[in-house]
Amino acid sequence: MNIDGRPYRTIFADTDGVSVQVIDQTRLPFAFELKCLATLDDAAVAIRTMIVRGAPLIGVTAAYGLALAMREDASLEGIDRACATLAATRPTAINLRWALDRVAATLRQVQPGERLASAFAEAGRIAEEDVASCRAIGAHGGRLIADLHKAKGRPIRVLTHCNAGWLATVDWGTALAPIYDAYENGVPVHVLVDETRPRNQGAALTAFELHGHGVPHTVIADNAGGHLMQHGEVDLCIVGSDRTTAEGDVCNKIGTYLKALAARDTGVPFYAALPFSTIDWTLRDGVAEIPIEERDAREVTHLTGRTEDGGFATVQVVSPGSPVANPAFDVTPSRLVTGIITERGVCEASAEGLLGLYPERRQAA
Prior knowledge:
It catalyses: 5-(methylsulfanyl)-alpha-D-ribose 1-phosphate = 5-(methylsulfanyl)-D-ribulose 1-phosphate. This is Methylthioribose-1-phosphate isomerase. The record marks 162 as: Transition state stabilizer. InterPro entries: IF-2B-related (IPR000649), IF-M1Pi (IPR005251), IF_2B-like_C (IPR042529), Initiation_fac_2B_a/b/d (IPR011559), M1Pi_N (IPR027363), NagB/RpiA_transferase-like (IPR037171). With 365 residues, the chain is of the alpha/beta class. It has three domains: 2-129, Up-down Bundle (Four Helix Bundle (Hemerythrin (Met), subunit A)), CATH 1.20.120; 152-288 and 332-361, 3-Layer(aba) Sandwich (Rossmann fold); 294-327, no CATH class. The chain has helices at 40-48, 55-69, 76-87, 94-107, 115-152, 177-184, 201-213, 225-230, 256-266, 286-289, 298-301, 351-357, and strands spanning 2-3, 6-7, 11-13, 20-23, 34-37, 156-160, 189-194, 217-220, 236-239, 243-245, 250-253, 270-273, 279-280, 302-306, 312-316, 329-332, 339-342, 345-347. The strands form five sheets. Strands 8-7-6-9-12-17-18 form a seven-stranded mixed sheet, sandwiched between helices. Strands 13-10-11-16 form a four-stranded mixed sheet, covered by helices on one side. A three-stranded antiparallel sheet has the order 3-4-5. The protein is globular. The two termini are 37 Å apart.
């Protein structure tokens, strides 16, 4: 996607062939900076501190992180240590574990001297597959928006939560990919962007993306979505996912469940958009089984922003001394999800729906 007319991906191999560049998302939307990842620790810190974030991008970054680890220790023990380090950074997004398992399996099949090049090649393939998956998600979801526009005869208002755009993937995005597809195909669309406390990924990142691409949008407070649905001002909800179970339960940024409840009460279609790598075929009950990351209380107690004089300041917004809980995700049960948009098409949020798109999983199931 474009920034100031120049195409960027969120992560890409550096010209030196032994490091990678990422967009530092902690600096957005007020500063656009690239950060070099040259070591395993660089990659682990980038994931843990949300320099990179979004389930698909976390997976690709972990793949490159394992490749960077091969510069220092290409032994089998080195592979295991690197995987353990990266897997511990963030527990909820399944893409991270999936990518590590895939690269590690490739490395165990080659000699130590070949593992650095092999790991970089495999991480590159995972990145390209992510781009292709997101483009396909966009095409399938874009048709949903186009069909809705044809039926209603007016611009379609889509509500989304958190950031599941190209900044959360290598390119294109998941939940925003259908919006980009519709927009580029001339379908009038207007996006309602939840601010998404506590890290404000909607206000900071989704709005940044949409503004840069020229897509009409409006930032709203997190608690405004239900009100707008009640008054017929939302036609469709599309969210991303950090882990989706084999039964179609969707884990996404905290607050997604409440949007799904409001959508069900008001009859607004509610979709989750995600690639195959986000499906955890080993889990059935998302509420009971998906590990929910608990993040630093400071994300809730403090806010950082740009001051009127152009500087930056961090301020405390919670009463001093009050205890704080900060679960990063919640789970929306499949019964509240109208459908799941994947690179293979759109299905109902159920075991049969997902197996219809991924029949090769039937035997495993």
